[in-house]
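Practice problem 4.
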């Protein structure tokens, strides 16, 4: 009976985390789209909604801590609760970075936005969606794809840096690119914990993950 209750609670909070992740991915898309189009109305909406959206993160964290404290899960159940907890924390940070990008849309002075920014945005969204799929379905292939996309994100950033002569002089542009790169790093934090959930051992994405899991 206790096992069934624990399973139901974990399933419920997992669904909530995935829903929160989907909202976060959409906010990444909207914030970058608003920046490219200089859509002040959308930007202001994203900024204003950030606190309310991130209330879901705090609630998920609280539920995970209650599950750990009250039910004392072990093995895979404990790893799942830990993965959901870490995911909610990283998604909260990504939502905050989306609000920063939205702010740059309001202050933007750039007349031409290089396509690399949109490529980076789509890559971050893909990373989030694959990480959530891996978390929901215990799918190591989705996790590998999410992690490998971080290399693509870095490549877009480097291409932007190399191809734009005035890149470092354009304050908002460089900040948007760096925030998108930071979002990818936060997804990698999710991936680390999800990898631990799936394979049952601690994985560090920059070292063991590539040499062992990514083959």
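Answer key:
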């Amino acid at each position: 009976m206790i096992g069934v209750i624990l399973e139901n609670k974990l399933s419920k909070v997992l669904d909530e985390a995935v829903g929160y992740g989907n909202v976060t991915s959409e906010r990444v898309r909207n914030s970058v789209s608003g920046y490219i189009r200089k859509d002040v109305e959308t930007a202001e909406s994203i900024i204003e909604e950030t606190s309310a959206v991130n209330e879901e993160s705090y609630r998920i964290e609280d539920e995970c801590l209650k599950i750990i404290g009250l039910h004392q899960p072990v093995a895979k159940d404990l790893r799942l609760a830990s993965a959901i907890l870490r995911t909610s924390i990283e998604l909260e940070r990504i939502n905050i970075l989306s609000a920063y990008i939205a702010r740059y849309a309001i202050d933007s002075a750039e007349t031409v936005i290089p396509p690399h920014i949109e490529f980076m945005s789509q890559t971050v969204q893909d990373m989030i969606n694959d990480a959530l799929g891996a978390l929901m379905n215990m799918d190591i292939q989705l996790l590998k794809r999410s992690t490998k996309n971080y290399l693509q994100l870095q490549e877009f950033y480097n291409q932007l840096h190399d191809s734009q002569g005035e890149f470092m002089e354009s304050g908002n542009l460089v900040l948007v690119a760096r925030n998108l790169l930071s979002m990818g790093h936060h997804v990698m934090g999710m991936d680390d914990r999800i990898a631990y959930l799936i394979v049952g051992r601690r994985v560090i994405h920059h070292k063991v993950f590539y040499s062992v899991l990514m083959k």
